[in-house]
Amino acid sequence: MSYLALSLTLIFVLIPLVLSRTLRLGLEKDTLIATVRSIIQLLAVGYVLQYVFEADNIIFLLLMILLMIGAATQNARKKGASIRGITWKLFITFVFIEALTQSILLGFSIVPPTPQYIIPISGMVIGNSMVLGILFLNRFTAEIENRQDETELILTLGGTPKQAIHTQLITSIKASTIPTIESQKTIGLVQLPGMMSGQIIAGADPVQAVQFQLLILFILLTTAVVTSIMLGFLSYPTLFNKRMQFLKIR
């Protein structure tokens, strides 16, 4: 794609700006900020990745992954600020997900152990885990706030913290994984996934593109379920003190 063609794609930014201005939606500022940030961040990442790929150094590879995990943690922690130690819970969850997926991919030689494969897949895994973490924390905190009386009643009747928070926990895990599971049911019918489309546009064999896309879909399914479950079971104990008393969140 030429720079002229790339500049013409800004038409797709102009359309929502005009509509927002016309309908007084107030989205102009956020749209412009998002556009500028995406351009700067993607260009910067492009140059960084070019250097990392050429260097082929494990230290640079690990630093790149750690940067992605750190950024994902910082972004997701805002939704769970009312939960004690949520920053480290998110960080541990993202590290575990990354270690789990990469150990399977590299351990069974599903993909080559090169930065060109590890970094893009890690980005998709960590990014999806971040979104799932945000969805879970958003729903979990809402469930806790809405059912505080129910939680305290179960504790009063002799229930354990796990029993008192069970319904909220399971409901939040299910709710956060639904988008991933439902999107996979219609994949290929309603939409062609981004990775598959990108490979086809780049000239790859469509069948090979499908194979790689299936790999990513299955990874994201594991990411969705494991992220929600792990984050949930790491978070709920901090909602109670040593006397098994419920600590109301703010």
Describe the structure.
The protein is mostly helical and 250 residues long. The protein has two domains: 1-55; 57-239, no CATH class. The protein has ten helices and no strands. Helix 4 crosses helix 5 (86-107), helix 6 (115-146) crosses helix 8 and helix 6 crosses helix 10 (206-235). The protein is globular, with a radius of gyration of 21 Å. The mean pLDDT is 84.
Label this structure with key terms:
250 residues; mainly alpha; 10 helices; 0% strand; globular; transmembrane; transmembrane helix
Helix content: over 70%
What does the overall shape look like?
globular
Portion in beta strands? under 5%
Structural class: mainly alpha
Succession of helices and strands: HHHHHHHHHH
Task: Enumerate the spans where pLDDT stays under 50 for 5 or more consecutive residues.
Answer: none
| Terminal-residue CA separation | 50 Å
Gyration radius from CA atoms, angstroms: 21 Å
Largest sheet entry: none
Write down the overall mean pLDDT. 84
Strand segment tally: 0
Number of domains: 2
Q: Report the total helices.
A: 10
Organism: Ornithinibacillus bavariensis
Membrane topology: Multi-pass membrane protein
Subcellular location: Membrane
InterPro entries: UPF0014_fam
